[in-house]
TrEMBL record:
Keywords: DNA damage, DNA repair, Glycosidase, Hydrolase. It comes from Allostreptomyces psammosilenae. It is an enzyme of class 3 (hydrolase). The keyword Hydrolase applies. This is Putative 3-methyladenine DNA glycosylase. Residues 1-21, 222-246 are annotated as: Disordered. It holds the Pfam family Pur_DNA_glyco.
DNA sequence: GCTAGGATTTACT
DNA sequence: GTAAATCCTAGCA
């Protein structure tokens, strides 16, 4: 059985100090640990993305860890594919995937190169760039909904497949994407539980971490196998048996 | 080649 | 609370 790791005290980072540590960037070594260890440590960190419209900064409030080819909830459970290749890549990079035909979700790659390990970014609080996010997330009724949920978060940051494998730890101050130290929450404010939407053997693994009481944390939903609308003998509509239209 | 299902969100009842 | 939207991936015949 897997135990939820305690929020780790990474040697290169400490609680933000008044001298500006919160604005400094996380080192790549931060991500050189396994995803279940990195995940709770990412809470309170700030993901900054420069776009043509300006900079959006997001404080992470909810994450999920996916680790190893044996993780039944992971995209890597069936080994390396073109889709998940960046998940096997070097740490500190982004793994962006397309899902449900319309949404993008983003992970931060962890562990040494060659290990399938990542932390799904599920929720965050927009710190700067509200106007930019408001345009992208026009359907959000409140600010807390800008990045509550993995697809909303990706949308708020303007992430898509062009950002797959992007380096979050690229040297230089002009790097388009980076993760800042931010202000990690107190350890007793970090909650954990089973991962959202993961069923089967992976459903019991408490690798979802979130900041207790934060309004930008998405509600937990247990895994529910979707049933595809099918012709069911008397197909009312739809191409019976045919391949999907392109 | 075909089919089932998906780390989701949103609109509608 | 429920169902639809929509495209990709991977298993299977």
């Amino acid at each position: 059985m897997t135990h939820p790791p305690r929020p780790a005290e990474h040697p290169t980072e400490a609680v933000a100090d008044p001298t500006g540590t919160a604005r400094s960037r996380l080192d790549r070594s931060f991500f050189l640990r396994d995803a279940p260890e990195v995940a709770p440590d990412l809470l309170g960190r700030v993901l900054a993305v420069d776009t043509g419209e300006g900079t959006v900064e997001l404080r992470l409030t909810e994450v999920e860890a996916y680790f190893g080819a044996n993780d039944p909830g992971s995209h890597a459970r069936n080994g390396r594919t073109a889709r998940n290749a960046s998940m096997f890549g070097p740490p500190g990079h982004l793994y962006v995937y397309f899902t449900y035909g319309m949404h993008y979700c983003a992970n931060v790659v962890c562990s040494p190169d060659g290990t399938a390990s990542g932390v799904l970014l599920r929720g965050g609080e927009v710190l700067t760039g509200h106007e930019i996010v408001a345009r992208r997330r026009a359907t959000a009724r409140r600010g807390v909904e800008y990045a509550r949920g993995p697809a909303r978060l990706a949308s708020a940051l303007g992430l898509d497949l062009t950002h797959d494998a992007a380096d979050l730890c690229a040297p230089g101050d002009d790097a388009p994407m980076r993760i800042l130290h931010g202000t990690p929450p107190a350890p007793d404010l970090i909650g954990c539980g089973p991962r959202t939407g993961v069923g089967g053997a992976g459903a019991d693994t408490p690798w979802r971490f979130y900041i207790e009481g934060d309004p930008t944390v998405s509600p937990y939903r247990a895994h529910v196998p979707r049933r595809r609308a099918r012709p069911a003998g008397d197909a009312p509509n739809g191409p019976a048996g045919g391949a999907r239209p392109r």
